[in-house]
Amino acid sequence: MAHDEPLDHVARIQAEWHRERPEIDVAPQGVIGRLHRLAARITEELCLVYGRYGLSEGEFDVLCALRRAGAPYERAPGELAAHTMVTTGAMTKRLDRLERAGLITRRRSTDDQRARIVALTTPGHTLIDEAFTTHMQNERRLLNLLSPNETAALEPLLKTWLARMEPPSAPADRHH
Predict the structure, then answer these.
(1) Per-residue model confidence (pLDDT) at position 12
(2) pLDDT of 170 strictly over 60
């Protein structure tokens, strides 16, 4: 960083820690702190789009998981929980709200009467197709803050780091 540039939030925190605890290497904060702040800002920007469609982030994830399933756009609640990485209790709350909104239906499985199946309704299908289109435009807008070369350099680094942190069996389709 050039000496005439103002310190960003993370650099100010690092400088304070360096002053208070000079024996501790605070260099990791340069990456982790900025990633943490960036993730929070990105989430805020994404949630603005979900909100325009009357959805929370979790509800958007559920509708995306159903839409990605392909016709007839249905999955078991446990499968949805795995695809969206939430507990079954949290999934039940999301499904209750989406069902009340007329965006999904729940029915008993024809194969196993104890099992339930969650399906997109026609209004749910229409809504998620619109919301996902806007979501991708929003992600493009956010990514366009970087040059194509910066994006091309960043993606493989993030992919490698994530692969080293996530267990191999983790669902790979968390990203809508």
Answers:
(1) 93
(2) no
CA-CA-CA-CA torsion for 171, 146, 32, 45, nearest 10 degrees? -70
Selected residue with higher pLDDT from 171 and 159: 159
Which residue(s) pair with 106 in the sheet? 118
List, in sequence order, the alpha helices (H) in 1-147.
9-20, 28-52, 57-68, 77-84, 88-100, 122-143
| Cα 157 from Cα 139, distance rounded (Å) | 19
User: The whole model's pTM is what?
Assistant: 0.83
Q: 84-119 pLDDT, tens per residue?
A: 878 878 888 999 999 999 999 999 877 766 678 999
* H or E segment and range at residue 118: strand 116-120
In-domain check, residue 176 = no
For residue 90, the enclosing domain spans 55-165
Are 51 and 33 a contacting pair, CB within 8 Å? no
Q: 105 and 153, same structural domain?
A: yes
What DSSP character marks residue 114? T
Query: Which tokens in the block code for residue 99?
Result: 């069902």
| Judgement on whether residues 41 and 93 belong to the same structural domain of the protein | no
Q: Which two tokens stand for residue 145?
A: 């803050």
Q: Which residues contact 99 (CB under 8 A, 6 or more apart)?
A: 105, 106
Q: CA-CA distance, 104 to 95, in Å (whole number)?
A: 8
User: What is residue 113's predicted lDDT score, i.e. its pLDDT?
Assistant: 61
